[in-house]
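Extended Data, panel c. Modelled sequence:
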Amino acid sequence: MKVSTVAWVLVCASPVLPAFAMADEDQVALRVASVTWPANYTGAAAPLPDPRLAQVGKVYLPVLIPKSFLVEKDLQLVAQPTSYTFSSSSNGAELVFSGTRIVTDLPGKPPISAEQPDVATQVTLAEQNALATTVRAGATYLASVECRSQADTRCADGRFVTSLVDSAVFLGGAKGEPQAQSGAAAPLPPAKPFDPNFTYRPAGELVSGSGQGVASMLNRAPGMRFPIERPPAYLNSQVWGVGGSHGAKGSWRDGANYTYPWRDTFCESRSRATPICPAGKGHQGVDIRPVDWARGKYWVVAAEDGVISDIGTYTVTLQAKGTRYRYLHMQMSKLAVKVGQAVNRGDHLGLVSNDFGDTSTTVHLHFEMLQNLSGKGWVHVPPYQSLVVAYEKGN
């Protein structure tokens, strides 16, 4: 006998929700922010070898670059009208610096003023990864350092990644206006769910004792495709699940880890600074297991149309309209994409694996979303509700 969502709410403090139980309600609005150019801008640029310099003029925001990047021989530039990304490998770490004009306006938030003040640099740390973000002249900039080794101090305390932001110099850019972008992406029409047996716990409900989540029904990525190509797939904790460091004894391959209902893991207890979490720190994404534990067998796909902005030691980043999607732990030796490649929603990116720099983890996809929240800079946002909607809709 099927039980309605209302009935579950009446009898359970923590309901298990069937597919299609939550409507695709609130949606974020994306727009291009006003950008104030440096007063001393003359059109001249810092030295950078061609043909990369030619691409700078295609970017409709002030292009900043850390001074140390100017001498990197393997420097790569991915240039788009409203965003750009520089990336380079350096002694076992992947260094990334990017800027954007795309702004995410949350419901009820006032619009950004063209005269808004600059925002102080904010740092978030994770295992083998450090991020720093700031807002300057109306545009948002992000620096990232991804280290192959846990012993690499450049990812340990935030000072190195902060120095990349603080040393950034003006390189150039175009003063014109890109094509206007406004309103939220149109949601896809309802389709058959990936799996008719799909159920899930509410957003923000974490395993007891594992932290405090974000109970938000906001779909921050309307029209997003689920990032694993074929069902079924399972969202649950790698740490508090069977075989995890805080979970029941056993193997992480235990069948209990490959069942519904889904459970949110965004903000699960971690030492990583994550400003949107109630504790100010926590798990910066969610973990997704494929149908079983096979390594290098199941395809990871693009969540939206976009460009591969950088590839790290264990991370692939997709820059889409207003959202940076980060895919961790794919089989890095068999990626289907390269830096600068344009991809369409659903295109193959790589295979679910357990790569993690010089170490390894369980076979799963760690999936993150970052958005520029009303001029505060790039922030990790909860992906769980967006994934629920995407999974319900199928392809």
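The CA atoms of residues 36 and 199 lie 48 Å apart. This feature is highlighted in the accompanying rendering.
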